[in-house]
DNA sequence: TATTATTTTTTACAAATGATAAAAACGACA
DNA sequence: TGTCGTTTTTATCATTTGTAAAAAATAATA
């Protein structure tokens, strides 16, 4: 997915404003397995995914807990770095070879203060993610692991094909053993 | 909490911009038990809480699932109405007599397009909520109910005093019986 | 292809949580 | 204060999920 489409998919921008963002992006590629963002560091860039798939995870008592998958067209941020300019708690790992666009956060923040269209575009970005995240939170509050897995199969079937099940399990908040049981039962 | 402080607590605004928002707010009061926002309707206002406490909940198979508590200084929105101008999935119930400030969403949207400071203020509002919500999601993914209850006790002790335990239980994603067990065990 | 490493499934048992019903505690109010 | 309705706790049993270890399947590499 090219950078113009990614930016406009968040919210349609006037040509001039969109160009201001694009001028500041740099295409980068990294191989599968690369750790793009490290937990406990201040991340100074955001990334748009042109191609590939990534996961965000936190480490908890030696285990990785995956809480987000990003695919083509989506935006990678280190939440605390982006929102509060503090060290983030999550790491980002590339699950496939990826093509990304890098954009420096400081530059983006400048544009937010200079261009009202970009400010509203940034607002839309946060709002859309907020809605999605809240829906996931609510869903996790009353659906069983089996229901959540079914939901995932239905909404993002491509994910299960491309991502190993251990990551899916932790994304669902259950163990791999438990997911395996659910899969056996459903078939 | 007065309206000036509430607005500035999200992000400090220039006097003129803040005034533009405040001019469009109307103080309203409702009694405990009032349903401020109804699920499955398009909500045309947002509310700032001057005084009182509210809960946001969705209905699932006859049971209320509380997913958010709002107290003085916080902002009440119907997420889908606010972000997508569609009917919301949640209801808002006042758990105490409340004093609120009402602001029409259409007016706020106009201000977003007219005033870059307000646009960035709205961005900050969404970003802060996004960060908080994501943290809650991550926490729920690997903490047990007992740990989440302890966390709640520690972070918002006043909540447990003022809100009935059935609401707390559903907020934690467990049954009231299960919460009661946890409480008995902890003491 | 053969070998090795990684991922997924299976098994057995333990712990946590859910469902249901009843008892106890609490609060509102006549 | 006494009564009634609501909330919280307790008890019992069923179900789900976790833990640990091993087997099976799959993927990576020489």
Automatic annotation (TrEMBL), chains A, B:
Residues covered by the Cyclic nucleotide-binding domain: 9-111
Protein name from the UniProt record: cAMP-binding domain of CRP or a regulatory subunit of cAMP-dependent protein kinases
């Amino acid at each position: 997915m090219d950078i113009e489409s990614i930016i406009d998919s968040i919210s349609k921008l006037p040509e001039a404003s969109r160009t201001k963002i694009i001028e500041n992006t740099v295409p980068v590629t990294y191989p599968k397995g690369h750790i793009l963002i490290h937990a406990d560091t201040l991340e100074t860039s955001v990334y748009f995914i042109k191609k590939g798939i990534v996961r965000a995870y936190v480490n908890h008592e030696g285990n990785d807990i995956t809480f987000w998958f990003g695919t083509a067209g989506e935006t990678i941020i280190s939440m605390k770095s982006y929102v509060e300019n503090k060290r983030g708690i999550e790491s980002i790992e590339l699950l496939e070879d990826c093509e990304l666009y890098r954009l420096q956060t400081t530059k983006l923040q400048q544009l937010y203060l200079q261009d009202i269209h970009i400010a509203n575009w940034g607002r839309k970005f946060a709002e859309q993610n907020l809605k999605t995240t809240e829906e996931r939170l609510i869903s996790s509050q009353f659906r069983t692991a089996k229901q959540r897995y079914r939901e995932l199969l239905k909404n993002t079937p491509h994910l299960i094909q491309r991502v190993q099940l251990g990551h899916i399990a932790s994304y669902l908040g259950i163990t791999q053993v438990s997911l395996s049981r659910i899969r056996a039962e459903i078939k």
